[in-house]
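Lecture 7 notes. Example A: sequence first, then its structure tokens.
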Amino acid sequence: MADHLLDHVRPYLDRSIEERIAYIQAPRWIGHQVAIQAHERLAELLSRPPALRTRGLMLVGPYANGKTMIAERFAVGHLRAAEQQRVWVVQTREGAGLAHFYGSILQALRAPTGNSRDVGRKAEQIDHLLDSLKPRILIFDEFHNALRGRARDVEAVLAFLRRIGRQFDISPVLIGEVAVFDFVNQTAEMATRFDLHAVPRWQYGEEFLALLDSLEAALPLARASDLSDASMARTVFKLSEGLIGEVVAIISAAAVTAARSGAERVTKSGLEALRYVPVSKRRRAPVRDGLL
């Protein structure tokens, strides 16, 4: 029974509805090919020999496509295995200017930030921490947030990335949308310091169908949903617009409904009943008119 489920998922069928729903809604790692290759490239940065001119990496792609989870999964895996933390994730703050950018780094390094906007003091504090903690990789998530300020501030941020490689032997990893790629490649000098690992939208094909099969096997429903069946798969693909975050959200929502209703499988009618509005159409969704 329930041969469509992974071995560690099958026992959840015997748990309460609340526990099953909590499991369905929990964040989950999906080890697709692009994610695995990204981890391999991050591992290469972590194990590289010392260098005076370090190379960094850009993880660039659309929103809701799993970039943050790739980075966090790698950082957590490293933390569990390492004696000393060498990988730190910086959540780049919204807001222009070096003060916001430096504040993001200090927060990630678990240092007191206070309310001071003294950029020089923050820079000295960061230098002291980097010299003490000796990170090998600094991952800047949502890095495009740091690129929305004045030109001189953006240049100062890029200069900081160059300097930490030379002074502290750190490889910066920049995660964000296409603006990150554009800014880094504005000059040949910066372009030679960063490799690109693209995290593009999914295309409809065998890899997408395999993704649906892996999700189906990970959700504790008693009956097989046949998500990779052409009709079901094309419905999910159309609603998700090729964004893995949207794929997971759609299927999870349908699975929760199936568990609560007793249907125990995701169906095409169940997907349609969600009335899920794709991201690109939400500004024109009928529900928006009711908000005016």
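Example B, a different protein, same format:
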Amino acid sequence: MRILVAPDSFKGSLTAMEAAENIKNGIHNYDSKIDVDLLPMADGGEGTVQSLVDATKGEIIKKKVTGPLGNRVEAFYGLLGDKKTAVIEMAAASGLPLVPEEKKNPSKTTTYGTGELIAAALDAGAQKIIIGIGGSATNDAGVGMAQALGAEILDEKGEQIDFGGGSLSQIEQIKLDKLDSRLKDVEILAACDVDNPLYGKEGAAYVYAPQKGANPEMVEILDQNLRHFNDIVIKELNKNPNEISGAGAAGGLGAGLVAFLDAELKAGVTIILDLINFEERLKNVDLVITGEGMLDGQSIYGKTPVGVSRSAAEKDIPVIAIAGTLGEGVEKVLDHGINSYFSIIDRPAALKEIIEESPKLLAKLSEQIIRTIQIKRL
């Protein structure tokens, strides 16, 4: 029997590789002869860099960059095993956790550090860059990112505009002739799992800015600024980012990546599955075990277990999903290639206790799953 173990991370508890290893331990506790292939997974969100570095035997590279508030922070990116592909989580440089609660202000926060990570990846020789664009503290439409790469985003005086979504109204001209020339030869994919437009009631400001510190008045201003940004991009670059699904992701970084870097926005799990050649890993596999921290009705919208299960289902390979917890509507995943699902929680307990014991609980459950599968009919 050959089993492919392909989980996402159990956030706050286990990396994807740690989860995979504990599932393998449980399987081998029952039968060490079972062939288990480990493939840590991700969907473009937190943990994507670590998962792909683990899956490809790459390396994590740390880099001091400009944080969302303009201060220096230590961020990171991943250079995968092929030495040609870099993976960036924009949150590592421009994420909400980098901003203290009392300093949250999307009128001021910048994606400049994300641009610096892209430049660092270019310095390392990357020919393909994947950018996960979740968890941002920003609402600047990726203008800071572009400035870090040499773009000139100019006001009426011909000077670079200031950091932050509050400054987008100052834009009068966009010049890309000084943009890092290496970008012309690099494929850039943005892992995006939302379909919000850049502006409007479903756009970046109205939907996401409040959690980044914006009050209702600020939300309206930020939305107006994003509209202005889009108008200038249409005029200066002959592109309309707002027509692209996901343009509003990460405070409009989705729009900025398309406008300035000609990036392509795709579902994160789709990018990852293609990158690691998932179909090849499915060859001669009898069972796939996947999972993540939470499995619920929303998992059908771009989450790792369902992305994995849909690919496996195309080859008629059964899939079992293991989760830390099961949420409302979890039964929906059964219509998307997952044959059965389980939670590692085996008794009433505090969350802290479950997190601490998650390696053991994951191994125990995996052993019981394999025991059940291997029952021979009398």
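Note on Example B: The mean pLDDT is 95. DSSP finds twelve helices and 13 strands in the chain.
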